[in-house]
Design a protein that fits this description.
- By secondary structure, this protein is α/β, with parallel strands linked by helices.
- It is built from six helices and seven strands, in the order H-E-E-E-H-E-H-E-H-E-E-H-H.
- Helix 2 packs parallel to helix 5.
- GO terms for molecular function: oxidoreductase activity.
């Protein structure tokens, strides 16, 4: 076990003790909690493999969409339970929002101890069907310790929420929907012309329909 895996295991010991029953109540706000961005910063990349729903290469965070990133290790039972929940959430979010949400999964393990072939088999067994690979420092950049941990990163690179737990798909969908609706509301307010009564009435209708 290398230092990264040891730190992840130590950090998750307390969190995983009750992870099977832990559910989140609304997403905490991290504001501008994210790493400093710079060109060529490898810490913001995941080395992806050729697997179901995944292509060999690299994926950088942030992307041009909201990114839902999950960190895991293959020997973790809670991580195995998390993948099908993420798959169900992804299906619903793709139906609602198309490509506005990108999913990414990154293992703390190294290719020297977990071969791409072994990761590919684990991924298919547990229902993964999106980009997956080896973390190259993304977890450290966003202050992630433990597994399974899921973070939501907006296109500006800000971490909107962060949870170390097994999340059910309904919770994931609700929290991602909330974030996308908040972004849409911010954009609407920025573009609205106060003198345009039609625009104001339309915005009010959307707010009334969506509820609090």
């Amino acid at each position: 076990m290398n230092r990264r895996e040891l730190l992840a295991g130590l950090g998750s010991a307390g969190a995983l003790a009750g992870a099977g029953t832990l559910l989140r109540v609304g997403p905490p706000s991290f504001g501008a909690d994210g790493p400093e961005m710079s060109d060529g910063n490898e810490s913001l990349e995941v080395e992806t493999i050729d697997a179901r729903g995944s292509e060999a290469g690299t994926v950088r965070v942030p992307t041009d969409a909201v990114a839902l990133v999950t960190f895991f290790v293959t020997g973790c039972g809670n991580c195995q339970a998390q993948i099908p929940e993420l798959a169900a959430a992804r299906d619903q979010l793709r139906e609602r929002h198309g490509d506005a949400v990108r999913f990414l999964a990154a293992t703390y393990q190294r290719s020297e101890t977990l071969s791409p072939a072994a990761l590919r088999e684990w991924w298919a067994t547990h229902g993964g069907d999106w980009a997956v690979g080896y973390d190259a420092g993304l977890a450290e950049a966003y202050g992630v310790v433990g597994y399974p941990t899921t973070i939501l990163v907006d296109p500006n690179g800000e971490k909107r929420w962060h949870e170390t737990a097994v999340l059910d798909h309904e919770t994931i969908v609700r929290d991602v929907d909330d974030e996308l609706e908040a972004e849409d509301s911010d954009g609407d307010r920025g573009e609205e012309d106060p003198s345009d009564e039609t625009t104001s009435e339309s915005t009010a209708s959307r707010i009334d329909v969506s509820g609090p």
